[in-house]
Amino acid sequence: MERRTRIERSFRGISERLAIRYLTNLGGERVDNGAVEGDDWSATLSSEQVGIGPSLTLTEVTVVFEGDEETLEPLVDRFAQKAMRAGG
Questions:
Q1: Cα 45 to chain center, whole Å?
Q2: What is the pLDDT of residues 72-86, one digit of tens each?
Q3: What CATH number corresponds to the domain at position 42?
Q4: What's the CA gap between 78 and 64, in Å, rounded?
Q5: Is 75 helix (H, G, I), strand (E, B) or coil?
Q6: What is the number of structural domains in the chain?
Q7: Which of 13, 45, 55, 73 is deepest in the core (most CB within 10 A)?
Q8: What domain range is 66 assigned to?
């Protein structure tokens, strides 16, 4: 029996638009403004501006991944690799 898992990760320095592109490249389909679904996973995105030091701000995108554990862990790892190369 598959267990539903929820993983929340935040990434700085990438846009929500770019994060959605990464998720669609990983096999998902955009279903809403901030939602992408794959065969056995889904991701919901939100973003906000966060302050870095006294005068710099960056976009921080938070992605909530949901799906079965076996699928989700490698998906989150692959997404994180793409996001880290783009932003930080």
A1: 6
A2: 999 999 999 998 875
A3: 3.30.1370.80
A4: 15
A5: helix
A6: 1
A7: 45
A8: 4-86
